[in-house]
């Protein structure tokens, strides 16, 4: 265990604000602790002599060796109570009391003081506005919820206290147990990152589940979770995913969450298995706690009914698992063991008259096949089958082979005892075969996470000073939006740009065209920080032959002046014209998230960015494998790789450009937003043809 | 009721093959019928005198007035038994016996005879290989399943008998009832279309549920379901959706299913609510049977817990419902009725200390709001709340307002009685709020289906004879693949093509270029039925100026000869060159599905067809609104409509081209496949630039 060992394994807990008043929170907590807690419970309440049979103390300072103080006094005296606890040497404090950050400006300022106090005494502080904490190992229920959790190997944190009471009630009804449970409350001090780190070190926690509405410190969470998720699965519902949900969450907790795209990318990079529903949270949590990871992706289906076998196969088709293809030996063994009418290929249909023994034989053969990484046992009610006996066989065979198994007993009351047998042995069992397969697929997903190799981001040799100079000169011109005049930033960071020059006269334009175009056609663009969509106003001329360069110069400047007379016009860019025949326009960009910092984006460029939104995002810094994955993830990836006989683009150059962009935006917090659009990818490399960025003067 | 009235409401049923042998199917059916059936049960078995207390007859011909014969004799004597039944005047027959189409060639030929016999006697025949049928209204369980269904308003058909036993067992455990249940078996005679039509006419069936592995007659099903689904919701799991699932289904039933794309389009066009999982099938079936349809899409959420309220809001965000925005009056009424700390906007958080009365007040206010089309009541366990009392209030208020409501009681055993109260009143209740919202969304989806207006497909004035001539001339040339030489087909059906000519000499090429290009550049393409990807071999020249036409002609022919010396070269096509600046390449195509006939496809064209697969499909004939929907459905629709300041293309011309293509492929069954790629859409209309088709000589 880590720094929170004492919080979860105290010898003595003081309830500050303990009372016997009926219906009060202070009574509920005291009673819950008295029920089963193996350690000492101490009541602190100066207005009482005795609380539920305990002597009541005036102050926590009157009691020696208190490990954890659970604070339930009114908000106005919470700070005093905590100071006393700190002075008494208590390091672990759970603040149940509400009326802090979640309730107006007075509460918010009280929460700031609370945080300062915690820093002063170096407190591990849960809450405020928390339901409390549980450790089933010690029978410790330091919450005011109506029920205690049953023991288990899942540790669960929730940003909603009500959800904790709901889950414990529901889980007790399903024999689903927990090791630790924490209601995070307002997360003034301890937050999700702390508990992830703690449980990552805890041998009694096999799976970490979380319900989160925001993440306090995005970077800390990603680092902590990435480390922990190698060994311990982390499954999270992050709510406020949708626009409506995000505004509901903001009004509920007062938290300003970062963008959904940032959470999506960050949780993935952190190795968190993100789910969208409560059902998936506990389905996935249960199977991860109960079953081993599959060594391969092939699923064997053993069924006594053809139709449900087809549905199960569809569910496998929907997942990232596959239908196992059996070895010849396996097929022969099935032929030996099963009646003629049986289907000895996958799904293995052992037919409606199958007794338990036939299920056993078939499952035994299937699990022995090296191509089988997981199995689904599916049974419909028949006259010849005992669900209870089947459940016992499945439990034994699963234990023997140590291959993950999920069950689908398709019935109602007749399956109840069998389902209990299976779930007690950690084998998930559902009526709907799709849920069984989804759960197995969660095992696969976590297996892949646990095998991930995290590469350090590469540090390229760049001209950081030149980049700084460009950003600062923009600052001096008192603008926060830059366009092609900032192409030098990309040059400084080694992101290739086309040969180009910015000129401010007809004759310079002709010279520049001669230089960058070498006699061929060129591209010319108006340069103005005030004109964003240059092509929409005719501010871009493509394929300008040498003899038309001078006139085109005049023409572009005139158009820009007509369009926006007060626009600052910095000149005209004369640019090398790329051979677009084998080229693909992509976009590489960045914006800055309040929780997670710079997000790097890559996608199909040009008009398709807006219409098809074929893009993917990572929290910076982006490593080489991660940049490569970004390329893999976009729908248009085959276009880059030479679909329909096209020549593939230089993938390595694209990947390197993404990494260099990542380095640039990580180095300069002043860059708030940046788009390279298009980043033209060709078989010979990439060229950043246009750039737009927004900078924050304050950060310069 | 329709033509199957007697099948479901017989006065007298004969069990042909009735027996008292323990564990036999014949005994199970006889016993099931004897248990509760209100009519007469007659045993037929020449080897017995008495079966389970019934006199046993030698033949069904010995018994007068038999309405339904349930046949469970061995396969070899099934046909004799059915002939006797037919001769005795029985018109409704349920064949339980297996060993027909599902088992080898002997079985298949027996099934053909069965079908002939049914035609001879005009029998309504269920099966063979069926579990049987139920009608709970009459206590009639003519199946060999272990349990009888409870009464209800859902009628259920299943292509898997085992799935029927599973569902009945499971549903009985949840108080979910059925009106009729049919195990379809091999569907030799009666199939899904017949039962859809029957239940559409049945006032006791509120919802039709189906588990199907294939659809026997695609067109008949679409027509029947389209009619029925206006009044009665049809929810179907069509399995074999995935490649793996389809091959599992084929090996299970021997059925050759059409393509998944065809099912997807056909079920949608038929107004069927297609679901992928067993869970959705019964979640959606239950709410459709129990709740009214929402008049608007706004959902009110009333909750005693903030966090779960946010999850519910996310689920609304995932659906096609929306979070209701309350009127000022509603907000004022909430402010009046609720404590200060409550959130009076949606989701309405009435806070953790809410008693039932506060839930009642809040729900009353919410349901009275004209913007609220549906409501979710969400409750976590608290000391102040009685779930049972809450359930009763919710039932009353739902009945008063006749607005659909779904409940989320987030707990375990403490919610059991309340859940029973709710579900008995037809109000669905789940632990996971996402399921509650999904169910409400199914109501919305069905509401939209029930309001659909089906337009008749337009019939354009076309030159059918010219089209026939082109197809027949291809037949005479003994080829089944046609290319640009078939552009005349499109001309005949009024699908615009670019000005074009096919020439076979240098000089004709020059003349043609002068004619179609009017002095501008032209496009030139090799014409050969043997060369499919012309541009890959350099068989296409774009932007050929008049002076290069003659040389390009030679060049194209030489390339084609070099590439494939034995290719038939029909000449070179000289084509008007389109201004592609404001153009979007689309594809319009067709292939023929064994179950559903011609499928019309539309999508983004060019290289994107293969890479992005941005296409959509309809079963022909395609009406005008349907063609317009196709355009709406593709991801790239905004490109056609003028994204980023582009000029929008002529949408009406695209829509008309799709309809004309639909008419062409409907008129000529000989066209097996056809692709117009690209169909270039511009602000001024469309042009079919290239066409490829495959024809079936037999159908000419």
What's the layout of helices and strands?
2 copies of one chain form a homodimer.
Chain A: H1 5-8, E1 12-16, H2 25-36, E2 40-44, E3 50-51, E4 54-57, E5 68-71, H3 75-87, E6 92-95, H4 104-121, E7 124-126, E8 132-135, E9 140-143, E10 151-158, H5 161-172, E11 178-183, H6 192-200, E12 207-212, H7 218-228, E13 234-238, H8 243-253, H9 260-269, E14 273-275, H10 278-290, E15 298-303, H11 306-318, E16 322-323, H12 328-337, E17 348-349, H13 356-368, E18 374-379, H14 387-401, E19 405-409, H15 416-424, E20 429-430, H16 433-451, H17 464-476, E21 481-482, H18 487-492, E22 500-503, H19 506-517, E23 522-527, E24 540-544, H20 549-563, E25 571-576, E26 584-593, E27 597-604, H21 607-612, E28 615-619, H22 624-633, H23 637-640, H24 651-667, E29 671-682, E30 685-688, E31 691-695
Parallel strand pairs in A: 1-2, 1-5, 2-4, 5-6, 6-7, 10-11, 10-12, 12-13, 13-14, 15-16, 15-17, 15-18, 18-19, 19-20
Antiparallel strand pairs in A: 3-4, 8-9, 8-11, 21-31, 22-25, 23-24, 23-25, 26-27, 26-29, 27-28, 29-30, 29-31
Give a structural overview:
Chains A, B: GO terms for molecular function: acetate-CoA ligase (ADP-forming) activity; ATP binding. Chains A, B: Keywords: ATP-binding, Ligase, Nucleotide-binding. Chains A, B: Its EC number is 6.2.1.13. Chains A, B: InterPro entries: Acyl-CoA_Synth/Transferase, ATP_grasp_subdomain_1, CoA-bd, Ligase_CoA_dom, NAD(P)-bd_dom_sf, Succ_CoA_lig_flav_dom, Succinyl-CoA_synth-like. Chains A, B: This is acetate--CoA ligase (ADP-forming). The structure is a homodimer of 700-residue chains. Chain A has 700 residues and is α/β, with parallel strands linked by helices. Among the domains of chain A are: 292-451, Rossmann fold; 499-576, ATP-grasp fold, A domain (Dna Ligase, domain 1, 2-Layer Sandwich), CATH 3.30.1490.20; 584-699, ATP-grasp fold, B domain (D-amino Acid Aminotransferase, Chain A, domain 1). Chain A has 24 helices and 31 strands. In chain A, the strands form five sheets. Chain A has a seven-stranded mixed β-sheet, sandwiched between helices. A seven-stranded mixed β-sheet of chain A has the order 9-8-11-10-12-13-14, sandwiched between helices. In chain A, strands 21, 26, 27, 28, 29, 30 and 31 form a seven-stranded antiparallel β-sheet that branches. In chain A, helix 10 (278-290) packs across helix 16 and helix 19 (506-517) packs across helix 20 (549-563). Chain A is flat, with a radius of gyration of 32 Å. The model of chain A has no long low-confidence stretch (mean pLDDT 93).
